[in-house]
Write a structure and sequence with these properties.
The chain has 259 residues and is mostly helical. It is 54% helix and 2% strand. The protein is globular and about 65 Å long. The relative contact order is 0.13. It is a multi-pass membrane protein.
């Protein structure tokens, strides 16, 4: 089985690739290569700040008596939940959601672009690696968004069951995670088939397209997401470190939404 050739995946196929690596360069060069934020062998361990639904208004209230302090706190939170803005025909999310999304944008931008170098100073005689630090960081941030895209996008999902927040209120996080994933992926053009499918999924989700041809959008959104994007993303990441864990988590979330 180990000697069986795989056209698309590296053989032998495993769940995780190894982190073991021996640096043969000088101590200074090894220290430079293994610095935090540029170390390829722990790149998947970078933690992402996840969107929160705590500032969304609850869809139902409890009939039990509620302490006054809690009511005051809830009222303050709701102050960030209800106000929105109409710009032409577009209705913005609530102020609280905009603040959360803004914090997420700053975080993702900082993690991707804050650390340097963006590219390895490779020469003809010295190679730090084939994957530039910028591509590695943005790639794993992009991959980490995948489970949340499906979690926030499904009509029937655990988040709605747990929080009581309607799926229509969660869709803004689905869109945000999708755009973050696409922009992070586009920082380094690799996995072209998956990236093209992702570009279609992202741009065809714009309101003026989705509202004009919803059935067309719905069919191709599901078809491209499952049949093309996820399949070729699975092949592209090729069990590198823990990359398949995110796809497995996405599959579990999607299957749960079908129950």
């Amino acid at each position: 089985m180990e000697n069986m050739p795989y056209k698309w995946l590296t053989s032998p196929v495993m769940l995780h690739s190894s982190r073991k690596h021996e640096c043969t360069m000088t101590p200074e060069q090894c220290a430079f290569k293994y610095r935090r934020w540029v170390n390829w062998y722990v790149a998947d361990l970078v933690k992402a700040v996840l969107p929160s639904t705590s500032l969304l208004p609850p869809s139902a209230s409890s009939s039990r008596p509620t302490p006054r302090a809690w009511l005051t706190t809830l009222a303050a939170v709701r102050a960030f939940s209800y106000p929105d803005t109409h710009i032409f025909r577009w209705r913005s999310p609530s102020l609280g959601v905009c603040i959360l999304l803004g914090c997420g944008f700053v975080y993702f931008s900082g993690v991707s672009l804050g650390a340097k170098p963006y590219y390895w100073p490779n020469t003809d005689t010295l190679s730090y690696g084939d994957s530039p630090p910028l591509a590695t960081r943005s790639g794993y941030l992009s991959l980490a968004c995948l489970p949340f895209i499906f979690a926030f996008g499904a009509k029937a999902n655990l988040l709605t069951t747990i929080t009581g927040v309607a799926p229509e209120k969660l869709i803004v996080f689905h869109l945000f995670a999708a755009w973050v994933m696409f922009n992070a992926s586009a920082m380094w053009l690799a996995g072209v088939i998956a990236l093209v499918a992702q570009a279609w999924l992202t741009f065809m989700s714009l309101p003026f397209v989705r509202h004009r041809a919803y059935e067309f959008f719905k069919f191709f959104h599901l078809f491209l997401a499952v049949a093309i994007f996820v399949v070729f993303l699975f092949i592209h990441v090729d069990y590198t470190l823990t990359s398949w864990d995110y796809i497995i988590a996405m599959g579990a979330i999607y299957c749960t939404s079908l129950l």
